[in-house]
Input
Amino acid sequence: MKRPRYCSRFAALANGQEPLALFITCSDSRVVPSLISLADPGELFVVRNVANLVPPHVPNGERGESGDASVASAVWYALEVLQIRDVVVCGHSGCGGVKALLAPPPPSAALQRWLAPAASAVEAWRKHGPLDPSFADHDQLSQISALIQLDNLMSHEHVRARVDAGDVRLHAWWFDIPSARLLAYSKAAGRYVSIMEAEDHGEAPSRVSIVNAAE
Ligand SMILES: [Zn+2]
Output
């Protein structure tokens, strides 16, 4: 099946990609990266997994709770080969993976192992409280978890070097499914706000949203 509208776009992309952003989000079927960010084919380099996690870097030789090679290699390729300058970690409301963090351990050992690094998000939420108490507990946790994934990105040496040099910017976004609102974390506001409001705070969201805000 062909989608005629996209024929010329794919023809232009046939020889390579130059995506605007690395978009790390959940496997949840309701979170559709290109739809919620209004991105076209070729604009987002996407990593999806349960609960949109970025396992922290584990030094060579150490076997720990994470050290996931899949996410790490996608992040490396995005930044070092594709020269992407904006990285978005996008959480969402009603996340089953995040809900599992507040429930008895799931019966899957693989899922338990995968979610283990997210324990630090639960700790941060319990210690520091929610960013926005108007959301349900699991959504409050999901919002904090997306921010913690930015810290985890910084544990990867090449990411830290690029961020410190001002070459790469990290963003935490959050998609509220019932209202279909895409929010961005604002340092100035201390919580997630609309993309437009983040811009009003002088905080530039990723180039993807800048492109889309003009539409
Ligand atoms: Zn999810």
Notes: The chain has one domain: 14-213.
